[in-house]
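Sequence in, structure out. Go.
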Amino acid sequence: MDVEIASGRVTLAGYLANPPVADAAPPTLVLCHGYPSSALGAAATNRSYPELADRIANEGWRVLTFAFRGCGSSGGDFELAGWLDDVLAAAEHARTLGETRGVWLAGFGTGGGLCVCAAARRPEIAGVATLGTPADFKDWANHPRRLLQHARDIGAIHRSDFPPSTDQWARGLHEIKPADEAARVAPRPLLVLHGSDDETVPSFDARVLSDAHGDAELRIIPGAAHDLRHDPRAVAILLGWLDRARHHQRAS
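Output:
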């Protein structure tokens, strides 16, 4: 079911999948995509996530996925700090969808890093799963104008007058650091899933995130690249982790 999520003045295009078996209070997962690839561009970034949401919903979850600002059919323009606001807005929206046994976050790439930062700010978030996630955005922060141009090239920034201030736009690249936030997620569960052959984010970042949390479940998939969304092994590990989380909640 298509839904809309208000994130400040921006309207995000979302998709809600409900579990097929009636449950008065299912656990809820907010599912986040990563930064658009040059091949697909921003318009197509979230295209396959409703399918994944439906698959997770079949395991007993209520799943909310959405396109970050500047992507898909969502309004706005790409800004890392704005994307963090989007995760927080989606998590808050998820709490309004009905009774639930907790809201969890899962994200790929950049989306995963922002899920960690959102959970650090919201203690009511029950747990987080990250897939192919960077420990920080230092590479972007070192070359903000290059990133800004790339975001324009792939269609994640639409307005010619955005941002009003490049320095302010780039501030979030320096200040948002998933590894620095991971300790604040503990003792809530954290899954850190990464490909050993990730060509975009080194697997070392996964170890940094895991160590920063202190008790994360770290899984490195041999031979896997960055696009874990389409790696059946990664999806299976995520589903297994979510299943354990759901049953643990039911038992407690």
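Check: The longest helix spans residues 232-251. Residues 2-251 form a domain with the Rossmann fold fold (CATH 3.40.50.1820).
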